[in-house]
Design brief:
328 residues, alpha+beta, Ribosomal Protein S5, domain 2, Alpha-Beta Plaits, 2 domains, 6-stranded mixed beta sheet, 9 helices, 12 strands, globular, binds (3R)-3-hydroxy-3-methyl-5-(phosphonooxy)pentanoic acid
């Protein structure tokens, strides 16, 4: 058994706009997906997953997409999870040249699924690293990021930026603009997460923004304005100016809200954090439901969120300095 882990992430700035070539700044957090793999010579994939959103399921299939597993969780979640694992293993077969190899795959994750914390990217990055190493091949984090991006791009039918996968593979804070991805310096950020227990449909939300952008020139301007917020945010990060970062996060949330990707529970958590004195708060990821991220060095935001209607869970998130990690 070879095991690797990879972190989830929050978007400090720039989700959605990054799809149209604007910069984005995601930041890896110490919530990880751990993937263990063992080679099988019969070419089959057997996946066992333990996840916050999936009570634990096991599926075995021969790699053909029409084999439906018989499990007691939402079919779309299982299909999505299988799609990502399948895609990751395809990348492993391609890069190692072992076209017929199968694997037993075990996934454990502290990252809620589809909630804006990059769970799928973390699973794909850790799976590619573990499965290539199981076959005696070691890839650099940037190569893992590239192959993980291709996996997400295919599973999400072209609606994926490089942000999640690059951030998860390399760790730290990163800047992504089109195909350019790189690490940036970030101060120690007092990140607090609020989770509404739900998930958004990334494909639908991205399509919604695309439609608005095509219909209204001011929606196009809104996307461009997010780009401006991100550029200001980069300066505030460099200066370590938490107050300015918070103000810009608030602005970013307002623009995302105008694009229709917030929700009642996300807005209520954002306001809960602001009322508690956070420097700022915004949704993270595709939106529609899932998580917000706030900046607050005190305990006030966590306490306020734990009483906010619609908030199921709140926790502090440390920046993950390392991306993909080799466990054994
Ligand atoms: O919700 P997540 O973590 O999958 O983030 C989606 C971010 C988008 O910008 C909406 C899409 C993308 O791939 O960048």
């Amino acid at each position: 058994m070879t095991r690797s882990s990879a972190p989830g992430k929050v978007y400090l700035f720039g989700e959605h706009a990054v799809v149209y070539g604007e910069p984005a700044v995601p930041c890896a957090i110490e919530r990880r997906a751990r993937v263990g793999v063992q080679r099988r010579d019969d070419g089959k994939l057997r996946v066992h997953a333990e996840d916050l959103s999936l009570d634990g399921f096991t599926v075995e299939y021969g790699g053909s997409a029409d084999e439906q597993p018989d499990v007691d969780v939402s079919e779309s979640l299982v299909t999505a999870a299988m799609g990502y694992v399948d895609g990751a293993i395809e990348q492993v077969r391609e890069v190692t040249g072992e076209e017929e190899v199968g694997f037993d795959v075990t996934i454990e994750s502290d990252i809620p699924l589809g909630a804006g914390l990059g769970s799928s990217a973390a699973v794909v990055v850790a799976a590619i690293d573990a499965a290539t190493r199981e076959l005696g091949v070691e890839l650099e984090p940037t190569e893992i990021a590239e192959r993980a991006f291709r996996t997400e791009y295919e599973v999400q039918e072209g609606q994926a930026s490089r942000a999640d996968t690059f951030c998860s593979a390399t760790g730290g804070a990163v800047r992504v603009e089109g195909e350019d991805c790189g690490s940036i310096e970030a101060p120690d950020l007092p990140l607090v997460i609020g989770f509404d227990g739900g998930a958004g449909d990334t494909g639908e939300l991205v399509a919604g923004v695309r439609n608005l952008r095509e219909e209204y020139p001011f929606a196009e301007d809104t996307v461009a304005a997010i780009g401006d917020v991100v550029r200001n945010g980069e300066e505030a990060l460099e200066a370590g100016d938490l107050e300015e970062l918070g103000r810009l996060m608030n602005f970013n949330h307002g623009l995302l809200s105008a694009l229709g990707v917030s929700s009642r529970s996300l807005d209520s958590m954002v306001w809960g954090a602001r009322d508690a004195g956070a420097y700022g708060a915004k949704l993270t990821g595709a939106g529609g439901g899932g998580c917000i991220v706030a900046l607050d060095p005190t305990d006030e935001t966590e306490t306020a969120l734990s009483y906010t209607p619609g908030c199921e869970e709140t926790f502090r998130a440390e920046l993950a300095e390392t991306g993909v990690e080799r466990l054994e």
